[in-house]
Specification:
Layout (H helix, E strand, L loop, with lengths): L2 H8 L5 H9 L3 H15 L5 H17 L8 E6 L4 E6 L5 E11 L2 E10 L40 E2 L2 E2 L4 H20 L11 E7 L10 E8 L4 E7 L9 H25 L6 H18 L3
Parallel strand pairs: 5-7, 6-7, 7-9
Antiparallel strand pairs: 1-2, 2-3, 3-4, 8-9
Helix pairs in contact: 1-3, 2-4, 3-4, 5-7, 6-7
């Protein structure tokens, strides 16, 4: 069976059960090798149809296995501004191409993609979006940008960062990286429930042209997106605080945001294990504090 035939055979399966039943009838080594070659052909997708094929290929590989290669899942998501697509590994690190999409009258079009390093392509370095800024990608008329259905749940807390060049920005960047690493070790995203996929805790640092009072802004919980939004603002004085005070401000507001989410979910009667979620975050915070209380 050629790679083209494998792709033609897996694309029509609308259910994961049907896809799994088809794959189980195939010689496993041959179909796995064929799927891996197909993935390599679609890892740098150029249009929405190629992305849809990459999603189905990843669904199939999640069933038959990735052999010695690093598994990635193909995820699409509306980030509040536009749709984005990416391949992520077990720890949530991006691999291969990640892209943003515009929906035009004629269909979906990719813009400003990036290429992320993968250990399975050690000779190919990461490439930022500036390299593709003037590339015009094909418009494809599709109803949606699919997302892998049998994906592994990722760390729900996502800390975006808006910053300039300052001591406060550098400090917030370091705190973000430090806490994210410990959250990955402490949190159990498969155990909390299905109501939340994305807990956006966006950090805002003073820039050259603007500054903010230190505060926490609680946003909305979006049922359709399974997402909660909040923003933490740092003032100019934050970078001069003692490390202990910096960490306490960061951690205290994250826990307040979690408590606010719990209130919103309870009001809507939505079941989600916020106590377990919060307990794991506290564990990550205390582990982080244990490293350095200066």
């Amino acid at each position: 069976m050629s790679n083209k035939d494998i792709l033609a055979d897996i694309m029509p399966h609308e259910s994961l059960d049907g896809l799994a039943a088809f794959l189980q009838l195939q010689p496993q080594d041959a179909v796995r090798n064929g799927l891996l070659k197909l993935f390599d052909e679609h890892a740098e997708y150029k249009d929405a149809d190629q992305w849809a094929a990459a999603v189905r290929i990843c669904e199939a590989l999640a069933i038959v296995g990735w052999s010695s290669r690093e598994r990635v899942d193909a995820i699409s998501h509306f980030n509040g501004d536009c749709w984005d697509t990416r391949f992520v590994n077990e720890k949530g690190a991006y691999r291969f191409r990640a892209g943003k999409w515009r929906k035009r009258k004629g269909g979906w079009v990719l813009f400003n993609p990036q290429y992320h390093f993968s250990p399975d392509r050690p000779d190919k370095p990461a490439v930022n979006w500036h390299h593709f800024a003037n590339v015009e990608f094909p418009i494809v008329d599709r109803s949606d940008l699919p997302s892998q259905r049998n994906y592994r749940k990722q760390l729900p807390i996502i800390m975006g960062l808006y910053c300039g060049s300052s001591k406060t920005s550098n400090t917030a960047t370091a705190l973000k990286a430090e806490l994210t690493a410990h959250l990955r070790d402490a949190m159990r995203p498969d155990t909390y429930g299905a109501a939340l996929e994305f807990f956006y805790f966006t950090l805002h640092c003073p820039a050259l042209s603007e500054s903010y009072p230190a505060r926490l802004k609680i946003g909305a919980y979006n049922t359709k997106q399974k997402a909660f939004y909040c923003d933490l603002y740092f003032d100019d004085a934050f970078g001069a605080l003692a490390v202990r005070q910096q960490r306490e401000y960061f951690a205290r507001n994250l826990l307040v945001a979690i408590d606010e989410l719990e209130t919103k979910l309870k009001k809507r009667g939505i079941n989600y294990d916020i106590p377990g979620f919060r307990s794991d975050v506290v564990d990550a915070i205390e582990h982080r504090y244990a490293q350095n209380r200066t």
